[in-house]
Amino acid sequence: MPSRTNQSKTQNKLNKHIKKVRDLVDGVLLLDKPVGLSSNDALIKAKRVLNAKKAGHTGTLDPFATGLLPLCFGEATKFSQDLLEADKTYETTVHLGITTNTGDTEGEAIDTRPVDVTVEQIEAVLEKFRGPILQVPPMYSALKRDGKAYYEYAREGITLEREARPVTILDLKFLEYSAPFLKLSVTCSKGTYIRVLGEDIGNALGCGAHLNALRRTQVGALTAEGMITLEALQADEAPLALLAPVDALLSSFPAVMLTEELARRFLQGQRLALGKESVEVPQEQGRVRVYHDGKLLGTGILQEYSILAPERLIAAKQ
Predict the structure, then answer these.
(1) Given the DSSP bridges, would you call strands 209-219 and 66-73 parallel, antiparallel or unpaired?
(2) What would the pLDDT profile of 37-54 be if each residue is shown by its tens digit?
(3) To the nearest whole number, what is the mean pLDDT of the chain?
(4) Residues known to be catalytic
(5) Rounded to an integer, what distance in angstroms lies between the CA atom of residue 167 and that of residue 172?
(6) Which of 84, 174, 170, 66 is nearest to 126 (CA)?
(7) What is the pLDDT of residues 300-314, one digit of tens each?
């Protein structure tokens, strides 16, 4: 007869090989990412709390950054690309006078210069960074060359030539200056590195700079209102109730309400001539969110002559 100890060891081994059954969870969590945690680690923790089968985040925040990190679960992941493309708003504190090798507080100081600038000088410099600008991506970034991330080269002491890329600073507001700390609000296009913006502003002021703090407050139409911390998520007895519906990602698109027959055809991938139907059609062409009986069916493209072409569809629950 095997001993109880051996039986227990055997059972533990079996348990390790048994995969936990995950739930089909659909929705969006507006997570307030804490400092010191990577976006992927934050996603893993939230996914574990919700016991969700499928999840993804919508653009990373650096570990030192905090704020709005929309996490998509289940069917919402089909629409996460929209947030990757969306404009974003941040509040940041730029530490003038000290340059680091990463452009933020996680790096090592590589240059220190005296700070002797006025608010008037700051305002004049900020004006140069409003609108379309060119920005050189930082070496400490996840961009890749020859299948290898820039930050991997940087950690090996290798600096690569990088081409400047066009980005747009849609809004750049001066908030506060208490030397050497400069607080700003930035709304920018996708692909903008706020670390680089802070460095470039410091260089333009003649003293250098790095980011002391960074907090994201808006992604597309999603705002900081309603954000949930990981602690609150983990402590909630009904965490699924904290999720926003899938169409929270699509609120900026006009809505189209279909009849039962049109909904059936739409879900089969058919293009619909809405001009011939008793359906209210938005005036502008482009992307729309499509519903039947209050239920989101997916997104479509409204084309010329009120033709609705299916784009991304919500899977029917079995």
Answers:
(1) parallel
(2) 999 999 999 999 999 999
(3) 90
(4) 62
(5) 13
(6) 174
(7) 999 999 999 999 999
> Is it the case that residue 6 has pLDDT exceeding 70?
no
Q: Which residues, listed in sequence order, are joined to residue 30 by a DSSP beta bridge?
A: 70
Q: What is the largest CA-CA distance in the chain?
A: 86
Label residue 27 exposed, middle or buried (CB < 10 Å: 0-12, 13-18, 19+): buried
**Nearest CA among 185, 197, 188 for reference residue 169:** 188
d(CA 133, CA 73): 35
CA dist 64 and 82 (Å) reads: 25
Distance CA 60, CA 143 (A): 12
Q: How far is residue 120's CA from residue 61's CA, in Å, rounded to a whole number?
A: 31
Three-state SS letters, the chain:
CCCHHHHHHHHHHHHHHCCCCCECCCEEEEEEECCCCCHHHHHHHHHHHHCECCEEECCCCCCCCEEEEEEEEHHHHHHHHHHHHCCEEEEEEEEECEEECCCECCCCEEEECCCCCCHHHHHHHHHHCCEEEEECCCCCCCCEECCEEHHHHHHCCCCCCCCCEEEEEEEEEEEEEECCEEEEEEEECCCCCHHHHHHHHHHHCCCCEEEEEEEEEEECCEECCCCECHHHHHHCCCHHHHCECHHHHHCCCCEEECCHHHHHHHHCCCCEEHHHCCCCCCCCCEEEEEEECCEEEEEEEEEHHHEEEEEEECCCCC
Round to whole Å and give the CA distance between 45 and 102: 26
Highest mean pLDDT among 61-70, 89-98, 244-253, 303-312: 89-98
Q: Is 312 left (phi over 0), alpha (psi -120 to 50) or beta?
A: beta
Q: What is the model's pLDDT at position 318? A: 43
Contacts of 9 (CB under 8 A, 6+ apart): none
Tokens at 95, concatenated = 């530490």
* CA atoms within 13 A of residue 145's CA, in its CB half-sphere: 16
